[in-house]
């Protein structure tokens, strides 16, 4: 699988190293070249310094042939915009955007964009740890 990841923070770097270790071709895009140090010396993918909403950067990353596109920056607007560009302009079928705002995440999901909301997931995991997710704990 050919995977493009926008954002090389903790989440993006973890995904990139995991996918690379599984034998997938991985390209990581980030505005800050220092962020690529999170990938470690064993990372065999590619890195591109640039903005994930810049079409030329995405072309350079090979977005037109990507099997998956994941955007994990800490900016909801940037994540949603780059995910839409990947989906609508480059025709990437598997696109996932991190979106910290649960309301916006649901709205974009309703429009056909796959979102992952760490706020919602975190709250659910806390409820599960307390036995409250299934109505067990009150």
Structural features:
single chain; 138 residues; alpha/beta; 6-stranded parallel β-sheet; 39% helix; 20% strand
Helix/strand structural class: alpha/beta
Which percent range describes the beta-strand content? Answer: 15-25%
Secondary-structure element series: EHEEHEHEHEH
Average pLDDT: 93
Helix count? 5
Distance between the termini: 44 Å
Total count of strands: 6
What spatial form do the alpha-carbon principal axes imply?
globular
| Strands ordered across the widest β-sheet | 3-2-1-4-5-6
Please give a structural write-up.
It is a single chain. The protein is an alpha/beta fold and 138 residues long. It is 39% helix and 20% strand. The protein is built from five helices and six strands. A six-stranded parallel beta sheet has the order 3-2-1-4-5-6, with helices on both faces. α3 links the parallel β4 and β5. The longest helix is centred in the middle third of the chain and has 14 residues, at 76-89. The termini are far apart. The mean pLDDT is 93.
């Amino acid at each position: 699988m050919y995977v493009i990841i926008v954002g090389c923070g903790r989440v993006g770097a973890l995904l990139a190293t995991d996918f690379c270790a599984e034998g997938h071709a991985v390209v990581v895009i980030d505005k800050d070249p220092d962020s690529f140090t999170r990938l470690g010396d064993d990372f065999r993918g590619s890195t591109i310094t640039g903005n994930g909403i810049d079409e030329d950067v995405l072309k350079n990353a090979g977005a037109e042939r990507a099997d998956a596109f994941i955007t994990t920056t800490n900016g909801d607007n940037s994540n949603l915009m780059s995910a839409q560009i990947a989906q609508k302009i480059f025709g990437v079928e598997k696109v996932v955007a991190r979106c910290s705002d649960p309301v916006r995440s649901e709205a974009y999901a309703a429009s056909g964009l796959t979102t992952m909301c760490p706020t919602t997931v975190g709250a659910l995991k806390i409820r599960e740890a307390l036995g409250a997710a299934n109505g067990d704990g009150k």
